[in-house]
């Protein structure tokens, strides 16, 4: 079966908070886990040692972006993505399915393959389920994602049904291709992706198909793309009870503080999102009571850490007044210090949740978080692509 | 007299290479020294610990920029510039004279004061020699610069003469003001600035006046503003022989590798320039044989350090292929890694020069550098302002 058996430490309900460990050849990942996003082989503004200092145990990188630039051949000759970017902890790579939907141009999808042109320079590419696995193996990914077919909504019922069918057929081909590569040598594990939009019936069917497949984990895709938080929660309530208890569940592209708590409450183990780094590049910083804009004049003379309770490098070293000055002066250093803070904030949420699950106090901890943290409306989460 | 006596270790000629130590309350600076520029209380893209890792023992910051934003009051309430930006080594601040010439709008200069408007938002300011010293004392500067009056060339002879006279009168007022502040408490030392454009007579007269003044060091200003390297060298040949041997000489705004060697050969002890960080933000990186553009395709597959002989963090950690990828992908991390490399390259030039001076082999080392390093034409050096 899989070569990355998930170890469930606490939590035997399929849809409640769980504590686990995901082993990989680059080390173990404790779950619930948040994965910072290194779209182009870098978590924007940060060096790998700085990402590690936030406590991140795994990061995500993007098959689509890396196949366009620098190309898998360059990464292979570098000795893989870990060596290329100097990150020695686990890497999960997505398959490119989301970027085919969100970023690529002139995309044509048949059962056999997706053909598309690079959004950078129009170079034509062909991506098949087999190729998506080969690329991820070429990067040296620890956790590979199956290629899925997303369609924008609204679409005709027949088109949605076709993409749905194709996603699960492609999962089968990814499994076969991964098995073939595994016979030749070490290769990362493979996660399947549950799709189905906001249709409870399709979601349930997809959860069943992915849950029964020979995969190391089950991702939940196609959420966090503009729907409300209530709609996302409703889909999780449909999906996670149907997934196998003994495999990790990964909610793709999700990563606001409140979404992490709600996801874990419903049995999700892994998350990724560009939100912390993208927000930081736009002066939005997390605090225990909610997001703030560091450019606001109230910080001009605040000669104390932005968050006195924060243990991140930024808060332990610099004042809010200095951060304010850097952002006002459009200094690149500000973007980096803000990114460190925001990533650490999300990682610390997962640490708090893991401790609470271990103690059996998750519900209290979640209530405490909700009473304190003012989430930003019911707005659409930030999309995954960069 | 001065409270920062310069210690000359090697070199008793006024116009040959010298080895020295400049003590300050934040530690000693070994000369020849290169000062990275932290215009807005940050060396662009770098944290202070990263600047320190390059071996920099002192950095420069800008009175003009800091008075506009965040304002001296904010920095004073932060506990001074060192505390504000978390740099615990010496800081030299320029006086604002150069930015009045290059950046401010609606500048009017009388013997009493310069009035101008912020280039950021039009806020009106008044700067006197006394105020320039007060501001620098407010920042907690270790080495303060006297306010000078620069005029663009060509200007009428009477206008040049007036600015020249005014610069030396203002020096006198800065000395008096610094003395007054020193009686009240600890205050940094003061350097005067030799002006005179490309006129050997004026330069010689200015060198005499500044050299006789009660200053801790003698800066050479108004060079590296568009003249040729030969013209700059000719002015140094006029000025340094006339300066006191026992005070440090600081060539303002100069900092290409070749200019450092030529300056030290002529008796200069200190340099500053935005060149290494500005070049790095534009993909220009120093190598032992000259500058290169890291975006060039020849680096795409170079899975080795950009410079095998370089001991900087960037070259010890990342490959040229990875840097190339970051620059091609317009990733902020590239700008930072390039800045580390370039600053370290210049700092290493000073380390090499200091060792050679100590060994009595400076001429050989300079010949070796010149035979190896291909300088970029006879082009104008980068200007100081940002």
What would you note in describing this structure?
The structure is a homodimer of 386-residue chains. The first copy, chain A, has 386 residues and is α/β, with parallel strands linked by helices. Chain A folds into 2 domains: 7-272, TIM Barrel (Alpha-Beta Barrel), CATH 3.20.20; 280-372, no CATH class. Chain A is built from 15 helices and 16 strands. In chain A, the strands form 4 sheets. An 8-stranded parallel β-sheet of chain A has the order 4-14-13-12-11-10-6-5. Chain A has a 3-stranded antiparallel β-sheet with strand order 1-2-3. In chain A, α8 (200-212) links the parallel β11 and β12. In chain A, α6 (129-139) crosses α7 (157-184), α10 (257-265) packs parallel to α14 and α10 runs antiparallel to α15 (362-372). Chain A binds chain B through residues 40-42, 44-47, 69-70, 74, 77-79, 84-86, 300-301, 303, 317-319, 321-322, 324-326, 328-329, 331-333, 335-337, and chain B through 40-42, 44-47, 69-70, 74, 77-79, 84-86, 300-301, 303, 317-319, 321-322, 324-326, 328-329, 331-333, 335-337.
